[in-house]
Amino acid sequence: MTATANRQLLLASHPKGRVRDEDFRLAESPLPALAEGQVQVRTIYISIDPTMRIWLHPADNYLPMLQHGEVMRSVSLGVVEASRSSAHAVGAFVQGLWGCQEHAVVDAAAVMPLPPIAPLPLTAHFSLLGHIGMTAYCGLVKIGRPLAGETVVVSAAAGAVGSLVGQIGRILGCRVVGIAGGEAKCRHLTEVLGFDAAVDYRRDDFAAALKEACPKGIDVYFDNVGGEMLDLALTLMNVFGRIVACGMISTYNDLSAAGPRNIAQVVIKRLRMEGFVILDPQHDAKEAYEHLLKWAAEGRLQHRAHILEGLECVPDAINMLLEGRNQGKLLVRVGQEP
Known about the structure:
By secondary structure, the chain is an alpha/beta fold.
């Protein structure tokens, strides 16, 4: 039976610092009638991403500011349960930006059909493919442009994007150093994912340890963290090195935090530092998917999902991600797989 009611997570106030449960409210409302060219989707998984904290700031960013009373924005995956569009049949899996709600009525053009990926699980559309795999592949390959034998350093390396970046770097013949929080995550990087070295940023001698792990300097720095970690990486960059500015999670709870003091290194070492958003049209999904699926099938690219249950988990899930408490790609499940 097609649903007629919907539970949604709505923004109540823009958070200051860590996200609080009180910054949201759960609401139930009737679903609107389906118009021509629209589909009704039942949400199965919500992707929890660092950019969700950016979307909660009271200002426009690369997307318009979320207003009080609006559905919390998220990349979501679901199944079409009703359709008035030839583009999406009932029962098809789709992905889109319809947010934190159990159902959604959206224009057919606003959702992307998902290709079959069996025997991979449905969650691989987030842990290996989708915006996560695209970010890792396009960020490293197209912006970082690593060459075999070069040193690639990845911050937040145990996260969904960082773990893929490091493995892709190894596949491309680079020496890969990951930065992560805690001995267990560092062991996972080296013993399971094949990183050449991993450095715990919680160590008192972190700066010295990172330098020791990069005896020939850094050629490509894939930055997910910003702040002091970016400042340190700048001191270790080689001449004509590349910095892939993917994220700045150390500043997301406080955008007034001081930026790197060592930015003169960009000039001194003739560095190229480029930011990107995977929504930009130049990123080639077909090329990325072909490589990611091939490498996964060959056993050269591992991925895992960390799944929480229910819409009410979303606020703390955002904190969990920014604090590094997750083990794998963080998802919230709000509906069962067919």
